[in-house]
Amino acid sequence: MTATVDDGAGVQLKNLVDGRWQDGRGEEFTSTNPSRPDSVVGAGALAGQAEVDEAVAAAARALPGWARTPHHERAAVLVRAAAAVEQSAEAWGYELAAEEGKTRAEGVGEVLRAAQILRYCAGEADREAGEMYSSPRRGERVLVTRRPLGVVGVITPFNFPIAIPAWKIAPALSHGNTVVWKPASLVPLLAMRLAQALQEAGLPPGVLNLLAGDGATGSRLVDHPGISGITFTGSTGVGRAIAASCAARGVPVQAEMGGKNPAVVLADADLGLAVEQVLLGAFRSTGQKCTATSRLIVEDGIAGEFLAEFARRTQSLVVGDAVDPATQMGPLVSASARATVHQGIEDAVGQGATPLAGASPYPGGDLAAGYFVPPTVLELPSTDLAVWREELFGPVVGVVRARDAQEAFALANDGEYGLSAAVFTNDLGRALESVVELDVGILHVNSETAGADPHVPFGGAKGSGYGPKEQGRASREFFTHTTTVYLRGGRPA
Ligand SMILES: NC(=O)C1=CN([C@@H]2O[C@H](COP(=O)(O)OP(=O)(O)OC[C@H]3O[C@@H](n4cnc5c(N)ncnc54)[C@H](OP(=O)(O)O)[C@@H]3O)[C@@H](O)[C@H]2O)C=CC1
Ligand SMILES: O=C(O)CCC(=O)C(=O)O
Fold this sequence. Notes:
By secondary structure, the protein is of the alpha/beta class. About 40% of the residues lie in helices and about 25% in strands. The chain folds into two domains: about 10-255 and about 465-485, Aldehyde Dehydrogenase, Chain A, domain 1 (3-Layer(aba) Sandwich); about 260-445, Aldehyde Dehydrogenase, Chain A, domain 2, CATH 3.40.309.10. Bound molecules: NADPH dihydro-nicotinamide-adenine-dinucleotide phosphate and 2-oxoglutaric acid. The site of 2-oxoglutaric acid has 9 residues, from loops. It holds the Pfam family Aldedh.
């Protein structure tokens, strides 16, 4: 009988190296269910240095053949994988909710999003593949062609266990690279599911290698001399360390990192819409999105009315087991995440923040046993507090009031991050002003701070991003490099 995430022992985790599924040879580890921490979701063993060496060697061997495979044949593999992922959406969405803690509906939605990304990237085969320029010399044309980067190391975070890997691995493969992937150790099962789908769709051995591992495994991958580039998403501290290490060796790096994303609600906004969207931005995925709303700036004139309704709706969110269809917000991913978020709330309250919703830890029962934190809204006495400046990565929103739009935009820009922002206004002039004023990678006007389509660039400004952007056509800037060809043939005309 096939093991399931609910049968106690967990699903057996394997690594994929050179087309073979094998047990890890390092320390044993498990992933557990954050709603019910005693329940094991996946069980296996970490990959060590030897497996990193084997995976990189396999990816290097597979590279010339895969790079020369016609783009349309590479795309066909992604299309087949997309169909398999889509077919498994219900089952894997359930597993995702059990392993990571976002709600089941969000889990299913994320799996479907991965399928959509695989299809978008397959479409790259039909898009223009280079450029041609005229030449100042007779009998010559200048072509700009694209080549794969090579063997790419992919390091992914826990919070989007299948969508983020899909939007790194699919363009890597589509552009002819081979991959060694180290997913977050908290969510190895969903990583295995995606790798299975791609492998069974017909990838040749060694084109995609999966290593379950921890930070040390990631570090070995980053430092491996056989790696041609690293694409990373995760915390700013780890991302900067990886970028420094890659820079020292001249290896290209793409790092998408933390966020402290503001929602600005101006006095002329549709307040019902704004409440709804800020709730989604702040509390979906339990606030564990790099694009989550964690700062709220409300214009004075409507602050009282808006905050009363926002607090009321926050308090009425149904918090519970992530796989229960009635749940609107699940747990945080781990005990240490819960401890960090509770500490952040306690520190803020100690420094004068006023709780408008949530804040106190659950006193007992299932919510105290799981890694649950109540959705929390804190009105802040100043913007000096850490809860305003540092990423907490949980369901916590700090609120300040602004005199006018100008002050609101200045407050939104005040900070080291620049991933996403939302502005709520019915005034087109104000909306356009926000486009000019706000220094962010993603700006939503009248929608929540989170959310990203696969066909447009994704990534942050300031401390949130380093290197070329992800997704859409932007992704080829990282996954390929150009060769400029001065092409003369025959006799000059
Ligand atoms: N800007 C963006 O697009 C996004 C940013 N994020 C950010 O990610 C963070 C949350 O994800 P989280 O998984 O906790 O992030 P981490 O930075 O802790 O981990 C990300 C990945 O890096 C690995 N890792 C840890 N240490 C090292 C190291 N020294 N060398 C190489 N790899 C290492 C982790 O392994 P292990 O899990 O085993 O520790 C994991 O696979 C938040 O800061 C969030 O804002 C998340 C999603 C999108
Ligand atoms: O906003 C989204 O939907 C995805 C963003 C993301 O990668 C994240 O929040 O971790």
